[in-house]
TrEMBL record:
Classification via PANTHER family: CUTINASE 4 (PTHR33630:SF9), CUTINASE RV1984C-RELATED-RELATED (PTHR33630)
Annotated TM spans: none
Family: Belongs to the cutinase family.
Presence of the UniProt keyword Transit peptide in the record: no
SUPFAM superfamilies listed in its UniProt record: alpha/beta-Hydrolases
Protein name: Cutinase family protein
Gene Ontology molecular function terms on file: carboxylic ester hydrolase activity
InterPro entries: AB_hydrolase_fold (IPR029058), Cutinase/axe (IPR000675)
Keywords on record: Disulfide bond, Hydrolase, Serine esterase
Superkingdom of origin organism: Bacteria
Amino acid sequence: MSPGPTAWAQGCAAVDVVIARGTTEPGYLGAAVGDPLYAVLREHLAVDTSAHRVEYPADLLVPSSVSDGTRAMTGHLVALSAACPDQRFILVGYSQGAVVTHGVLGSPAALALPGMWTLPPELSHRVLAVLLFGDPLRLVGGTAHPWYADRTQNYCAAGDPVCAGGIFPAAHGTYEWAFADAAGQVNARL
């Protein structure tokens, strides 16, 4: 097996891309969003990057899956903030991973779920951008925590039943159209 993206950058990269994949999504960072999005970000961002896969079940049959994801993502962000004091983060969540990301950032709709771990407020300035794809919380009016609203892009494909209440399940796996825009949004914040 080839090494994952975390092996591509040694030490403290300027930006660490932290990705929570979707439910049962294959691939290292996630075949539908994480892996291809990270390739686009590496190509388009004017700084060195590293990537981190959030280790969590990503399984709807595991009741603690989302809270496990928030614990893993928050733990990574806290540890890297201490080890790499100048590093900033791009948080990416796809489908269930978007709910994990909302939880880490303290979004009100996500905090209704039990066992959520949130990023300490003193680290909020380290989050450069938040990129959400196929976000289920959109269906219940869930929005980014106000601290992160101006840094958050929430992409939802037309017809996606998970985020738009649509009737085209295949639309949930088609987010390539958003990757260049996401990279542009991040570049504008660098």
